[in-house]
Amino acid sequence: MTRYQHVNHGFSPVWDEKSKLLILGSFPSVKSREVNFYYGHPQNRFWKVIAQVFQEELPHTIEEKKAVLHKNHIALWDVIKSCDIIGSSDSSIKNAEPADISTLLKAAPIERIYVNGSLAKKLYDRYVFPDTGMQAIKLPSTSPANARFTLDALVECWSVIG
After folding, report:
1. Under a CB-based contact definition with an 8 Å cutoff, are residues 109 and 18 in contact?
2. pTM for this one?
3. How far apart (Å, rounded) are the C-alpha atoms in residues 78 and 103?
């Protein structure tokens, strides 16, 4: 029987003083927590989408991924700081504690916030929007579970950030 675990996020947001866009996921997958960085599952299409939208080489290492984000003035974080979760199942999230996004918004000149998928939007609207007052724009999830969208369709939708 699969059981809930209380899990802390485990790694910091990526941003710098030039970050203008903030992309928020919901909570890191098991694989992302193992590699200690965002979108660590090889089937997640996030890095392919970002590379194509910004016409960059596909980054492979954490350092390369951070460099792509910084070069394109993107901050990256998740809405949830800790929660009870079964494996990587976003739909199982309960007892969520939100990340303190407002601190990042005070430190960086963020102009727009995008969320990666419906759950990230729902969590953002419930936990974060009341503190920030800044609307988030929902983009289709890059998760492999979102089989409805091909890579090309994701790139087309996500091109609004470029």
Report:
1. yes
2. 0.94
3. 13
